[in-house]
Automatic annotation (TrEMBL):
SUPFAM superfamilies: AF0104/ALDC/Ptd012-like (SSF117856). InterPro entries: PPC_dom. The lineage of its organism: Bacteria, Bacillati, Bacillota, Bacilli, Lactobacillales. Residues 7-148 form the PPC domain. This is PPC domain-containing protein. Pfam families: PCC. PROSITE patterns: PPC (PS51742). It comes from the Bacteria.
Length: 148
């Protein structure tokens, strides 16, 4: 267990349950740091506040979008790699549905910066056998996997 997050290893994968009011990204980062793992993950759950970013290539910057309320996390996919200080970096994309002012289902999706869990977060984390470092790519303007 890390904080109020529960975890269990089954069949070579970690199953994580992140508790209500916890920060999803911070909990995954703590988990990766504690167990010294890189890898990829998927998940579902619910949040009550999210910050989703859209990358603006011309500016080499992100535009943040904040949404609060009952947010159904219908998809979460991401990875954990290491920065140049060997610290875990969590990179995730997610989609959340919610009811808009007209009572219709609407969606917010993109690069996940933060998510506060509303009820629960259920994550399946598949570790890599090796570390996965990141490096800056001047063409992309962001840090990417260093594979060679």
């Amino acid at each position: 267990m890390v904080g109020t997050m529960e975890s269990k290893m089954m069949n070579g994968e970690y199953y994580l349950r992140i508790a209500k009011n916890e920060n999803l990204m911070a909990e995954i980062r703590k988990f990766a740091d504690r167990y010294h793992v890189c890898g990829h993950f998927t998940g579902i759950g619910a949040a009550n506040k999210v910050i989703i970013s859209t990358y603006i290539p011309e500016k080499h910057d992100f535009l943040d979008h904040t949404k609060e309320g009952m947010l159904e996390m219908f998809t979460l996919t991401g990875n954990v790699s290491l920065d140049d200080q060997n610290q875990p970096v969590v990179h995730a994309h997610a989609g959340f549905s919610y009811l808009n002012d007209k009572g219709d289902i609407a969606v917010i999706a993109g690069d996940l910066r933060e998510a506060t869990i509303g009820y629960t977060g259920e994550i399946v984390f598949t570790p890599t056998k090796e570390d996965l470092p990141r490096q800056f790519d001047p063409d992309a303007g962001i840090d990417v996997w260093k594979l060679n």
